[in-house]
Amino acid sequence: MSVFPSKLRVFSFFHLCGILYSMNYFALQVKTRAETKFIHMATHTSLLDEEDAVRLVFPQKRTKIRRKGSILPALEPIFPGYIFIETSKTYESFYWKLKTIPGFFRYLPDTQHPKPLDGSDLILLKHFVSFGPVAESSEVTFDQNDRIQVTNGPLKGLEGSIVKVNKRKGRAKVKLDLYTESFLIDFAFTILGHSDD
Length: 197
Hints:
Layout: E1 9-10, H1 17-22, E2 24-30, H2 35-43, E3 54-57, E4 60-67, E5 70-77, E6 82-87, H3 95-99, E7 104-107, H4 119-129, E8 134-135, E9 138-142, E10 148-152, E11 162-166, E12 171-178, E13 181-191
Parallel strand pairs: 1-3, 4-8, 9-13
Antiparallel strand pairs: 2-6, 2-7, 3-6, 4-5, 9-10, 11-12, 12-13
């Protein structure tokens, strides 16, 4: 039986490392804040069949927001406006089918010649994919000079990309570069040994 379903499915994490490292990842830009709608339309149509061998990756993160003195959890995309296409085939297998869905903007680096992620772009995507469907809060400490030290979580390995830290809100602003785009994204963290008021 094929490991690929008859309809397109959304995956943010793949348990089989062999599959994870043998696949290509293409980037697709869609309307911002309409990513889940685009995914829903792709998932609940028969645009792609078993032979297409395509899956969608939509990395998300759990963060927290402060409202009226209370800290509330929130779920946000790591790369707003971007969905990633995981496939063992070339882009011809999905090119026209996904392009017909409302909300489609372009393939990267350009729609006429989509190319799979490689180098630092691929490493960055796999970093977040490795944390599962949703990247949870990181655990951190601060040294005697008040510099952040990440113990575990999605911020681990990204310390050099942190541009701002807000200890009160438990957020670290990280600069992420993908293709020619730069994203300033807030990631939540928990200070070990510290309790929120």
